[in-house]
Design goal:
Radius of gyration: 15 Å
Structural class: alpha+beta
Oligomer: single chain
Distance between the termini: 27 Å
Strand order of the largest sheet: 1-2-3-4-5
Number of helices: 7
Shape: globular
C-alpha cells in the first residue's frame, strides 16, 4: 500500500492551516477555493474520478482530494512521485468543465502560490497570473514552506515543465 491509500485522511499541518482560511472569491478578483478539513475518502475519490472521466475502470488511489472551487472542480495531491512523502507530491486541479492541470510541484510551492493570490482554478484557467500578495497566506507559507518564495507564475511554469504530460494523460483516461 502506498502512502496515498491508507485510512488516514487527516491533512498535513500546512493543509490543515489552509483549511482554516476563509478564501474570498471577491467577484472574480480573489481565489475561488474552498479547502476541506480532511482528505476525501478513497471511495469518494474513486467515484468522483470515474464520473469525471467516464471511465468505470479507474480508482482514485493516486489522488488525495483536499478542496474544491465554487463550481465543484477539485484540488488534489497527486501521487506523481512514487516513494516521496506526501508533502513532496504535486498539486493538481480537475475542473467541473473538464479543465485540468498541474498547479504546483509540491505542497510548499502551493502555499507560496496561494500567498501570491493564485488558487488552483486560477492557475489552470488563466495564462497571466497577477501577483496579489495576501499577508495572512504569506505568514502561513512562511510557517510551513520548505521551498523558496517565488511568484505564482514561476511555480506553475516549473510544475508544468516537470509534469508536461499530465493533462494529456488524464484526457487519455476519459471515455
Amino acid at each position: 500500500m502506498n502512502e496515498m491509500t491508507g485510512d488516514d485522511h487527516r491533512l498535513p499541518p500546512a493543509l490543515a492551516d489552509v483549511a482554516r482560511v476563509g478564501f474570498d472569491y471577491d467577484d472574480g478578483n480573489g481565489i475561488d477555493f474552498e479547502p476541506y478539513e480532511a482528505f476525501c475518502s478513497a471511495e469518494e475519490t474513486t467515484d468522483w474520478l470515474r464520473q469525471w472521466t467516464g471511465n468505470p475502470e479507474l480508482d482514485g488511489d493516486a489522488y488525495r482530494v483536499f478542496g474544491q472551487n465554487g463550481a465543484g472542480g477539485l484540488a488534489a495531491l497527486w501521487y506523481g512521485r512514487p516513494g516521496h512523502p506526501l508533502a513532496e507530491q504535486p498539486v493538481v486541479f480537475m475542473g467541473s468543465e473538464g479543465e485540468c492541470g498541474v498547479v504546483a510541484g509540491n505542497l510548499s510551492d502551493f502555499l507560496w502560490m496561494l500567498a501570491d493570490g493564485v488558487g488552483p482554478l486560477e492557475s489552470v484557467l488563466y495564462e497571466e497570473h497577477e501577483s496579489r500578495p495576501d499577508a495572512h497566506l504569506t505568514q502561513l507559507a512562511e510557517r510551513h514552506a520548505t521551498t523558496p518564495r517565488r511568484p505564482a507564475r514561476d511555480i506553475i511554469t516549473e510544475a508544468r515543465a516537470e509534469f508536461p504530460t499530465f493533462t494529456n494523460d488524464i484526457e487519455e483516461l476519459c471515455r
